[in-house]
## 1
Amino acid sequence: MKKNKLHNFIVWERPCYPGLIHMAAESLVLPQKKEWGRPWAKSYGFWSRGMVRFAWPKKEFLANAVYIAKKSLNDAYFNRKLKIYYKLNAVLKK
């Protein structure tokens, strides 16, 4: 990733072990893609000296975020999610 192109990306950076971040990333991206039909954006991951850095193309990331937010605010979608929530809560209360 060239320094002069960095402004085109959303960058997330934290100290971490690569195995831990890989599991967390996979457990987030796959269900999200299944639920909404698209992930946040194509992800680029780098690990160096105990730091993990992920970058997403800003334009694609923001377009997908707007799509997901609009879909989440749809009443039918929201009510369907509430039904699932109440069903799962009932199981937990037993």
## 2
Amino acid sequence: METISLRFCFKEDIGTRSDAMNFLELLNQFEVQLSRVGFYEPVKQAFSKEVFQEMWIDGFEDSYSFMSRLEKRKSYINMNTRGGLPGSAGFDFVLSKQQFLLEQTKWIDLFRFVCETWKPYRASIGLDLDRDVFVDTQELLDNTIFWTYERDEFCFLKVREVSWINYWSHALLEHGNIETIEAFDWEAVDPGADGAYFQLTEAFDDPSFMIRREAARTHIGVGVLLRKVIDEDLMKEAEWLRSSDFSLDDV
């Protein structure tokens, strides 16, 4: 199933009762109905506001990550209300491509509402790329297996890759050169209450997305973005794949 994700990352934890109530109000405002909740798959527990708030606030065995399924949909929401490291708390709406297309205006409005009122450190909307995006074995290897990202105690605050629509807070933008970032050939740039929105392509599934994404990385550089480097160990695996009868069907 192809999915579109709306991702929101916060510098501080969001594990209070007030946060939980605000999230439930957000769902009500945008008519997002939940059916089931749970800490692990398969998610079987029936949704109720009381159960949801308990999971949000108390977690389970020192874990504050849980999932909610949308009513009569394949879509779901991942929550991580207490992350441990700066930037690791947040929530993701993972929507089927079909559902996103049916209600695209609604989901973009929800995205902007969260950015303007919750003020995340960073947020994004983008197509979740899987192996079907890549047209051949070499492209699959070049865009997945070869690469890893820098990791330190602040790695969750930075951006792995430029997405279709990106919200970057002023605090995040201070780690880059704002004039350089704005000078890139974005599809659109809009100011926000505590940051700015950068749209990479007109459509989330634009055929030129991958090329544009790499061009944006080259232009922006590190700072806002995590440094992406070749993983030498995985290079060896890639060399083995090249010399074998590997095909996309094996992935």
## 3
Amino acid sequence: MKKIYGAAYRMPAELNSALQCVENSHYLITPVIMTISGVFAVWMAKNSIKSSREIARKQATISLFERSIENELLTNSMNIIRKVHEHNEINIEVYADKPKDNLNETSFLEVKNAVRKVLNFHEHICIGINADIYDEHVFKDHRMRAFIELWGMTEAYIIKRRELSGTEELYLNLENQVKRWM
């Protein structure tokens, strides 16, 4: 019973329970606000981590570009492959096997090592792209033509190396990446 203006007044039960809910609503509102705040904080943290990973991947990709440009051995190796491809005197798949009698062994090994160096480098890039270490979109925007050109110049070599070694997985990441981009 409550007293209103000095007179005793009995509140209806429904009104009394409604007032009780309003008085106790802070017990309900506080956990709801805390839950919403927690969900928002988790969402923000998740987005921040995702953004940081994307930035790190792009930085790693750009750093790899810079290192590959500065790497004279890699540049020279790519130039050797281009010369072999342009001169067409000897098919590149010949370098997948042992030197033939009519080839200079020193230049043969130079070409063979150049091809392996360039293909191994690009295979590792493709492995890094597949593992989300490098950003595929950055590579596609800046190096897609070079990957496709390399594949075109060395595909016969790769097929011959797979045949000779009995390993179908040899340079498979590179092949899959190029085919995905073509």
